[in-house]
# Entry
Amino acid sequence: MSEKPIDSLYSFKESYLKRRNEIAVLLDESIDVNYLKEEEDVWTQVTSTLIPLYEKKACFEYLTALKKSKISSVKIPQFSFINKNLEKNYFKLIPVSGLIESRNFLIGLRDSKIYCTRFIRHKDSLDYTSEPDIIHEIMGHAIFFNSPLYCILNRAFGEAASKADEDQMKTLERIYWYTIEFGICTENNQKKAFGAGLLSSIQELCNFENLELIPYDLETIARDGFDTMNPHTKLYYFDKNFEESAKIIVEDIMKIISG
Ligand SMILES: [Fe+2]
# Structure
């Protein structure tokens, strides 16, 4: 979620940006993207590293959702394929050309729409990308929508965003950032990732335990800004499993809009 124009973020080669823009204008989710061999290679290189890492680093709820997703590291999945799978949970991926304004993005979740980009990161930026590319969207978010609990959590953000005033919206964005994007829970005394930014980045997934990890607290996060363009120096964690963490987040979302 950001309002920065996507092309101004990096000084990638013109040919890469041109290709990305070709994909960005394909806004009909039923029409598949013909990915190039080099794009398929990027998907395979990143996801074949991420998937084995999940066994140790991802929370149980995500691992269960991953199995249901039938995603593999062999081929970039098309939105038409994923949407068929997500139908049962009433969510749908909708292609967008780039980052969209946060309230609109969240209200989309209320309406069962997951706005996602379809371009893939540059081959020189395999480990980390500050922009949401298709690896982030699918490995970080779309797979997780196979979990009914994750659906409830996302819908709660959307419902709240549709009612929030400007100050409440700012707090919602911060909670979203430190949970849906970079959330960490605890299972069997081990920190496990559930945030999309962690689950879609080799660098972040390998290193999040080395950051300053602060116990989750609504008031602290409500005061804490974040920088979408830079990796973190600190993150927040729950000392509970994903299910209990999600319950707390939903309660806190309710507090924000009723407070
Ligand atoms: Fe995201």
Summary: Residues 132, 136, 140-141, 181, 196 surround fe (ii) ion (CB under 6 Å). Strands lie at 92-95, 113-116, 184-187, 190-193, 212-215, 234-237.
